[in-house]
Specification:
By secondary structure, this protein is of the alpha/beta class. The protein has one domain. The mean pLDDT is 88.
Length: 187
């Protein structure tokens, strides 16, 4: 099971992979990039200094080391029977990337990442669906393999230049353009 796509034979999301990889790589290896993630939002005070429990997530998601894609990628999200984690009209089912950041006092922040290609539309219903789903994960309303217990969540959108996506930025904790994602590692 690879940590990243670059040496892997997974072609599951070829358009998204370079950007998801760059994002998670930056989070894993760069404290400044992690600080940038929470800058100027309500999480900044508690999570400006964090580590990444990467091995714990790996052990939880893929204990037998069988997955072809990285363990942080493509969490298939089964909606609960009675829950708002998949509102009507939203087709969102997968979390493109999910990683966790742990602060010095042991609190864990779940980072839910959605990737949109330049020409991919993001509907209003879809944009509204991310936070309720992340809240469902936080509260553990359903048992989900590979999801570490956490205390807070944030939703991140990696987007292209499309206006429809930019207009919906308010539904996410943080948004990065594709080119900004590639620059994150050098922060
Ligand atoms: Zn739910």
């Amino acid at each position: 099971m690879p940590d990243f796509y670059r040496n892997a034979d997974s072609h599951y999301q070829p358009r998204a992979q370079p950007y998801l990889d760059a994002f998670v790589d930056a989070m894993l290896h760069n404290q400044n990039a992690r600080a940038e993630l929470v800058r100027s939002n309500s999480l900044e005070r508690e999570f400006s200094e964090t580590t990444v429990p990467f091995k714990e997530q790996h052990a939880s998601r893929d204990p037998s080391d069988k997955m072809k894609q990285p363990f942080w990628a493509n969490y298939w999200s089964e909606p609960c029977a009675r829950c708002d984690c998949r509102p009507p009209g939203s087709k969102t089912m997968e979390i493109d990337a999910l990683i966790f950041l742990r602060n010095v006092s042991g609190k864990v922040l779940a980072v839910h990442v959605e990737f949109k290609a330049d020409d991919e539309r993001l509907s209003d219903d879809q944009a509204r669906a991310y936070a309720p789903r992340a809240q469902c994960y936080l509260e553990g309303r359903k048992s989900r393999k590979g999801v570490l217990r956490h205390d807070e969540f944030m939703t991140v959108l990696l987007h292209g230049a499309g206006d429809t996506v930019v207009d919906l930025a308010e539904h996410f904790t943080k948004c990065f353009t594709h080119s900004d994602v590639l620059k994150l590692a050098s922060k």
